[in-house]
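Readers outside the structure-tokenisation community will struggle with the description of the input data as it stands. For illustration, here is how one protein appears when written out as sequence plus structure tokens:
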Amino acid sequence: VALFSWFGGLKFVTSLPHFCIFEYVLGFPCPGCDITAALLALAHFDINRSIFIQPCGIGLASTVFIQSTIRGAYLLRVIKIQTANEAVSALNITFTASLIIFWIIRIINI
């Protein structure tokens, strides 16, 4: 969806209604709700809007960028696979923890 909207489908994507099965069933938003909208705002260099929509969007974008860099360093034989795996694992844990913390804060403020 984000890639489509990057290439001109922004009006189409923003006109779609928000639907989250998690929120529909449980009555409160899932941890990743609005992350696509935050990434879309980030893709348009609107950092303030991205943070306002979902602060973890920047964390996800950073995690993907750093993981790609680490994997690239491994492919170029700059680092060992064990080092790459440990670094990526630490990034994943950090991002997941921040997503859960933000989710809990969001639920408390509902």
